[in-house]
Design brief:
three-stranded antiparallel beta sheet; 291 residues; two-stranded antiparallel ribbon
């Protein structure tokens, strides 16, 4: 059940992409707002089992996660309705009326409704002539898609910058790291010294280039900013240590003052506002690490 990577860059409109099965479920649940089509037992699992809970135990009653619908199987009348819409979507794809972003077809030639994705914008346009209109469920799905795409795009850009960085260019690395003129000249001298030493020892230019590449990459990796995942991991570790030390990280100002005092006793100088700002980020970081 992979998320199609290419959609990170091809789904700028309409909030993202959606599986055929999930699309049909979302549409029928929004349609149900009109009332009376399904009984409570049929639709309850799609709302009750996926309520979000924050790390401090607060429940968000109205914030469901329609992405999780892929793991839930509709029953009774809802199952029949979802199957009917999925079949209609497949017919539209076969006729070229609906273009899939990612198409998965089995050996029997049947389109897989779970692994086939379409743009949400195309799906909403497809719905309207059929008397369906996006509602709260579709809006919640779009919110989730926005988060997925923005995080994936951010991480992809960070990695691309690392791969594209001109590692051989000592001047670039000096500017990137904010080195003063003395440090820059020292670094450039060291690079040239290494290059000349390797060449004198009989290594080929290709080997020398590879050695300098590895050195430059390691320097950049050692000095690159934290990625989102690394930052969230460190914040989660801080939360664990706070719990162990009986420090309430949700009381930002008070706990920041206590941590600052502890740091001073260790001979460390950390601003109280800096500590407080990091403590405020802990709840969001924990949500990404919750099992």
């Amino acid at each position: 059940m992979d998320y199609p990577f290419q959609t990170i860059f091809s789904s700028n409109e309409g909030g993202g992409v959606i599986r055929l099965k999930v699309a049909a479920i979302c549409a029928w649940l929004d349609y149900e707002d009109g009332g009376g089509h399904f009984n409570e037992e049929e639709i309850a699992p799609f709302f009750q089992t996926i309520e979000k809970t924050s790390p401090n135990g607060n429940k968000y009653e109205d914030q469901i996660d329609p992405h999780a619908f892929v793991f839930l199987e509709p029953t009774e009348n809802l199952a029949a309705s979802v199957e009917e819409m999925v079949n209609a979507l497949i017919v539209s794809i076969d006729k070229g009326q609906l273009k899939p972003v990612f198409l998965k077809v089995g050996l029997d030639g049947v389109i897989d409704p779970v692994e086939t994705w379409i743009l949400t914008s195309d799906f909403y346009e497809w719905l309207e002539p059929r008397g369906f209109y996006p509602g709260d469920v579709c809006n919640d799905y779009d919110d989730g898609e926005g988060n997925i795409i923005s995080h994936a795009y951010e991480n992809a850009c960070e990695m691309r910058k690392e791969f594209e960085a001109p590692y051989f260019n000592a001047e670039y690395r000096g500017l990137k790291k904010g080195l003063d003129s003395k440090e820059f000249l020292q670094q450039r001298y060291e690079n040239l010294f290494l290059q000349n030493t390797l060449l004198k020892q009989g290594f080929s230019p290709e080997v020398v280039t590879e050695a300098l590449t590895r050195q430059g990459r390691q320097e950049d990796l050692d000095n690159r900013p934290l990625r989102t995942r690394e930052r969230n991991t460190l914040l989660s570790i801080i939360a664990v240590l706070c719990e162990e030390a009986k420090l309430n990280y949700t009381r930002h100002a008070k706990t920041a003052g206590l941590i600052r005092d502890m740091a001073e006793r260790m001979g460390l100088n950390i601003g109280e506002s800096t500590i407080e700002n990091h403590l405020k980020k802990i709840p969001d970081a924990l949500e990404t690490r919750m099992k």
